[in-house]
Specification:
Elements: H1 8-19, H2 30-42, H3 47-73, H4 84-108, H5 112-118, H6 131-140, H7 142-157, H8 159-168, H9 172-194, H10 201-205, H11 212-229, H12 248-257, E1 263-267, E2 283-289, E3 292-297, E4 300-305, H13 306-309, E5 314-320, H14 324-335, E6 341-342, E7 353-354, H15 356-364, E8 375-377, E9 380-382, H16 385-394, E10 398-404, E11 411-412, H17 414-424
Parallel strand pairs: 6-7
Antiparallel strand pairs: 1-2, 1-5, 2-3, 3-4, 5-10, 8-9, 10-11
Helix pairs in contact: 1-3, 1-4, 3-4, 3-11, 4-7, 4-8, 4-9, 7-9, 7-11, 8-9, 14-15
Amino acid sequence: MTELEDDPLEVAFRTLRAAVPALPRKEDLADLLEQVEAAQARGYFHPYEDEHLRQVYASYLAIRTSLWQVVLALKPLLKNQERYEVFGVAFCSAAILRRSASFVIGLAKDRPVVRKKLDEAEIRYGLEWKSYTRVYRSVTSIRWMWQYRESVMFYEEHRAEIQESLSQAGLSLVGEWLREEEPFFETKRRLMWRRRFAYRWYSFCRRHRSGYGQVMFFIFRLGGCAIAEMRQPFVKKGGLEQGKRVSEVAKVEAQRRLAAGDVIVTRHDDAMSNLFLPGFWPHAALYLGEGWFLEAKKDGVKVRPLRETLEVDAFLVLRPQLEEREIKEALTAALSHEGKLYDFAFDFTRSDRLVCTEVVYRTYHGREPIGFDLVSQSGRLCLPAEELIGQALKSGSFQLVSAYGIQDDYFVDGEEAIAQVEQSLTPSQVLQEPSQR
């Protein structure tokens, strides 16, 4: 394998391509609309209705954050040039998110019981108190609408150049999505005019019609504001301004300890894209050897360098109890999934799109003595990272090799590693009683 730098535009496109089908659409929300109407009428939610609502809402928030991060990642590609394909991908992300937000907001805007439910804190999904209110405020503010309108005007003025640039860059699908969004632009424009005097209109009128750079600034500023609205469910040690706690020295030591076939489970103290994943440990990757991992992230299932996969705050290493020949066979099978898109819907019943733990699941499940049981979470069968850890260690089919960063920034092994991992897991995943260790 040779190390290749990822093209930010390609990463953005793959993320957008994976996210678009998973975003909530009006036609897909018939059951949910029926449930929220019933809950509003009776004055409360039944448990299964509560779970369904949170599943849709939390999934939307996670995808929303991922796409805004994509928008911000495109900024370095500008370099004072008019790259219409960059604008096309960034604006497509913003337009789709804008319309999807209207569906989510519409669920609760005129339904106080639903609004109150979405504003509740829910630690299982990493949802904070009044999260819905913050989202609603961020996408309906006059400033947001004006800046979005500026981007729409630029797109309408340069539609031909943008579509041509997308086609030449092999991004025709983005052009199709933009054309599908065009009917909604007129609606947003009328809304803008109706509310024009609700804000300091004169300050906007002083601005001349924006050029390429100014419009791109609007989009990137919107992205930054949107992400700032989403608070992380955990506080990063030393403050959010600090870098990742796994240092370069720790990465070198980690590679020395790793063996091909190992499963690494990781954690970001300030993860924003995993808002609806429960527990301390949200992510997993498969070690291929020689400093390379197979890992599913928002841009798909890719072979990634160790320095990227370990750009985290804490991790643990699980080693399958298999013969070397069996591990080689498993890794060969695992590599057949390289290139697949990320599955924002977390649907383990399909194999054309995968999430991080599904890479591990499809690599090792059924290779005796390894077997995993999918669990129902918010109405879907899946294998959360903490469930993976618990099942792997309780069954004895994996060994906990070492851990880093759970209680402090150092490696632990043996009994100490087991004790720290136990303390980090949710109660249902505790490995064993202290007296049994």
